[in-house]
Amino acid sequence: MRERSDEELMANWAAGEFGAFEALYERHRGPLYRYVLRQVSDPATANDLYQGSWEKVIRARRSWSPGAPFRAWLYRIAHNHVVDHFRRQRPETELQPECTESPGEGPEQALGREHREARLKEALAQLSPKQREAVLLKLEGGLDLQSIANVLGVNRETAKSRLRYAVAQLKEALKERES
Amino acid sequence: MTRKTTLSTNDRRLSKDLEQLQSDWERMERAEPPGLLDQAVLNTARRDLESKKRRRPLKWLGGFATATVAVLAITVVWLPERPADLPPPDATGVPAPQDKAAALMQESAPEARDTAPRIDVQKTRRLNAAPAPAADAPALEMEARRGEKGDFMASESDAVLEEEALLPPEAWIKQLLALKQEGRIEELEAGLRAFREAYPEHPLPGSLGQSPP
Question: What DSSP letter does each residue of B30-63 carry, written as one string?
Answer without folding.
Answer: -----HHHHHHHHHHHHHHHHHHHHHHHHHHHHH
